[in-house]
Fold this protein.
Amino acid sequence: MIDLADKRILVTGGTSSIGRATSSALADAGARVLTCGRHQSSLDDAIAAASGDVNGGTADPAQREGVDRLFAAVDDTLGGIDMLVSCAALGADPIDEMDDADWRYVFDTNLAAYLACAKRAIARMEANGGGHLLFIGSISPEIEAVGESVYAATKAGVQAFAETLRKEVADRNIKVSVIQPGSVDTDMQQCAPAEKVEAVAGEEVLEPAEIADAVLFVLTRSVKCNIVNLRIEPLLQETA
């Protein structure tokens, strides 16, 4: 199995929910983690809550200058990158209820940023002899729930991109994986905190730490093993 000790890992969207839990879990496993967020206060809280080696900076991967800033930090702070975990994502309303600027920003955050970060990471991984790209996707493209047209489209794009990219970079010793969570207790869940607690207790919603555990599982398989897709749902997943 692959030991994560001293692995240089970039986690996007590490200030809340899945990204925050993942950054902490990777650091606990001995990795050197760099994460990012759009707001300094949330970033400071995430770094302070981690018990291991987590650094970070404010950057918006949806913007080209944000990606530039992020990978400058990768080079300066980590001295390179062994693994990329793309977690940053936004929820969305139905397309006809969103302004053009808003749905385009969701697209840039949930899909274009994954492509941009992957491109930068691949160049560095190839020079370093290999690496691993892991994208947090979703089961939403398969569920096709009413109200999730924009969000589902972005996550379907992540899935198609990852599965095709895997074939393009495998001969460079770069793995590509997707984790497809079902309902998770994140900021996207538009309900009261008490309702979230009840949903988690009722096995209808997963906790972010369970997705972080899956990230560790995928990243620590042997060098000859590439987990392409890993689908995780709560026991009582809502499918409509």
